[in-house]
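Troubleshooting: if your tokenizer reports a length mismatch, compare your output against this known-good record of 336 residues.
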Amino acid sequence: WALAAQNSTFGGEGRQSILGELSSLSSNLLGFIGLVFQSLWLTAPSLLKGWVAGFGFGAGQVPALVYWFWLPVVALAWLLEEKRIQLERPVRIFLAGMGILSFLGIYTMVFIPSHVYGGLTALAKHGRYLLPFVPLVFLGITGLYTLKLKFQKPILASVLSFFLLAQVFYAIGIYTTYYTYCTYDAYAGDACSLPIYKNIEKEDAGSALLNNESQITQSFTKFCGELESIDLYINQKADDLQGDLLVSLLDTDGDLLWDGSIPADEIRNLAYLNIPLDGLTETNLDVYLIQLSTTGMPDEGLGFALTYADFYPGELSINGQPEDRDLLIHYVCTTP
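Known-good structure output:
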């Protein structure tokens, strides 16, 4: 509780003491409980996916077929349990109830630091928090029902088949995540978005300010197919900002490949700005430079998020001066 309270933003007042946190909770306890269960409902799919499978550091995307193959494994394996396992009803209720209550307790503790009163920022949604308590629930329901003997062998064969298929596709996902530039989804027909950032906090990232008095240039090396768009994360923008963002794409010789403008009122704060490169003909170069400037934009300008480390090969310069960080950028290709 001390850890949750000291890092909490509950009440919208930033970090609070334990007494302050208790005061905020007790003032509307039922409302807070309702928010926790609302968050639990909204994040249930993510919880289930995180419980079944995931990759380290939040990198890549587990192939969807892994989940579809794994869930039948769990359900059918439960039906294969022998009914000779006898537990008294109170014991079953205790085991399953303790597992559920333990998970709800952990979920609530993780939910509190990420919640601001009046909003639902459901950040506590990774299924790994389920792992320690799932065995208790399984013990509580094991042996409640079992299939007849004549169905046992075909069901066992199905369980083994689904299990092997899940492992095969999970291995493919691992390979494409850690040993290729693009993830599994790109090889399954989706676009490839690079670079892949691991555990990066966009909200707390540094910012490069762009206005009429500045110019930002970022180079990046492309490790996928034909370039079709670029995403930049905006972390500073006034609601009434006027002017236009000017975007130019250059080659390493400084020759213009593509340019365009985006009105400030079409740019959202704390969100990715997608820049479609419609009409770009040189889509297969290895290295590109993106140049950002503005027109009619006052001093407060636009803030572009920066990475805290070198996540990709590239150089950032602001008004011609090199910087030791890079823009938080994604370039999107039609193929891996």
